[in-house]
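Predict the 3D structure for this chain.
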Amino acid sequence: MIKIDSDRAVKKAEDDQYDFVGIASSLAPSILETVKGEGLVIGLEGQWGSGKTSLLNFLQKELEKDGNNNIHIISSTPWLNGDAANLVGSVLSPISKVLIDVEKEKMSSEDDELQMMKDKVKKIGFLLNDYTQKTARNLAPFASFAGTVLPGFDGVSKVLETGANALETLKTNETPAKLKEDISKKITELDVGFVIILDDLDRLEPEQAVEVVRLVRSVADFPNVAYLMCYDRDVLAQALKTGLKVKDGDLYLQKIVQLTFTIPLPEPFDLRTQFCKEAEEIYEEIAGKKLKGELLSDLKSAVDREGVGLTTPREVKLTLNSIRFIYPSIIDDVYFPDLCRIYLIKTTNFKLYKWLEQYLAIRSILVTGDGNLDGEARKKMGLRLKKLLPSDNIESTKSIWSLGRFVPGIESNAKPKKRVFSHVSSDEVQRSIALKRLGSPLHYRFYFALTGPKTVMSDEDFDNILKMAREDIVELKATLITQSQSFRQSGKTWFEHILDRLDDHVIAQLDENTAKGFIVAIGNMMDVAMSSDKGPRVFEFSIGETAVSVVKSLFMRLNELNRDIFQEVSKSFVKDGEAINWLVGYFLRDQLCDHGKIGNQAVSEKQWVFSDKFLYVLSEILSDRLNEPDVQNSFADMPKLSNLLYIWKKISGDEVVNAWVADYSKNDEGFLTILNHLRHWSMSDKIYYPLSKKNIEDFYVLDDALKRLDNLVGGEFDDTVKDLKEAMEQARN
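Done. Predicted structure below.
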């Protein structure tokens, strides 16, 4: 069960975290002393959430403990009472009752004095009501005082409970000054004093605030009466300004309040210390273990930085309540110190919180390749960030440099567009993903929306992919094929996202069976994936090239774990892999390039997946497969046949390949199919697919091919022929 702090005012000394008990014990004697004078209004001031009501609770206990029988403590919360008459009644009713009770105690119960007592009691109620009516505005007379029914005095009870009409009949023509004099005389005569506590005045509507302040003003200088008004000064002043239609509500308030005591700010680090302590308790309660090591260190660092902005105990409670409420539902998707950090920012700097939400969302799309952001948009983001964090002091929490210590891609730079989305190393990205940090492009959204980004696969789904690789290769192949045909908003497939997730960090954690499962499944489905590919990737690797990079890393991991299994899987990979187009045209081509067998991109032996000798063995296996009739019959349906033809030439020789091309080109449709496969792509104002003479010469006698193409103009395949001729013209240009 989630235990949310209700944010109620503290009443027990053992729950006091900010020494309100000590403050109350120091204030109480001074307040009681003021009761002996001509009346005083004391303002207990503090912003919302600073603990005013908690302090009042302890203060009332001290006043009751240290006072005497003649001083009475009356506590009221006017904003709960509703209309203006009730506001007045909540204060004057208890005063009336005290005066009546004291009057009763001072008189004898003999029959000959009974009528005198009734008259005096009636007069007390009458004086207070009539005085209030003549000093306050727009108030209906209050007739029924709480607890004023006196057993045995039915006549008095009836008068006090009859209502407004009854008291109206008792009115005199005495002036407010004369009434005030009579009331003051009565209080002095009975030798009683009052401390009237009015809490939460800053929650009143403007009209209510005006009436309560007028009430206080009207009885503020009664002898032996001290008012203790509790409020947020700025809020109450604004209410008075609105209700009274004056220029300066604060100045008006100063006319009412004779002295003020402001709730002291918590001592340095008190709020942060309390936050950190309770955050540790939340973690232990929900995670079932203590927070320690790097987690604890990162939490303290986050609280030290972001906790500087905490100003009141309420802000601590609100922030902790948010964390306590949401953490159970995302415990497996976030890094607890970062969760505390972002919710501290939400409480203390909400505009920065919203900026971070937008920034991390855009950055996730950029990192995953699902979108781009132009320079002008970057500039706007950078300008807004500087406005939110204007300090140039690197130690300040209001500096961009400080924020960049935990939010990736942020730099303190004079140029706005360079403050955001700067380069982050792959190691840093991988670490943030592994720990599910705020900066992880796969997890950032859990911190704001409790769900992952739509552009990424959930950890649960990805874990299921890993399980299939380990336990069911057939199911994995089918799943990868489905994902290769399912497109995201960016135009990329979910299969490409899986390849992106299989980075060096993830692969380094795989066991032998899981690494083997991915190698086999990818080797069986890549031709289907390439067939689903929508077109060239102008500024990035193709899906075939990306898959090669991942499989190379998987082979290296398998070699680390078990050399014998590595060699066994390698041979099976090229002998039985169903994606023959990709195996030859992409994977084998990449290995030959790495070894310097083709091209000029050779790498050091330390980067080789296979030794020279073993690569030769694998090449021979593929060469034998390519000579099989069943395999050759599938060539025409391959998505990237030209890649296969070039590498086939390399491992089997020109004569074998040219013979197959000549045989396949005996019919016109086959001839045109090969020419279409020999086209490449280029980009100018758009993407073109030119056909160069050089590519034709690699497989045909050029003049014979051109003449044959001319002879096909106007025939059955005229549209295809025209398209090819246009492609040749594009190559010349």
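The chain has four domains: 19-262, 270-449, 459-652, 665-733.
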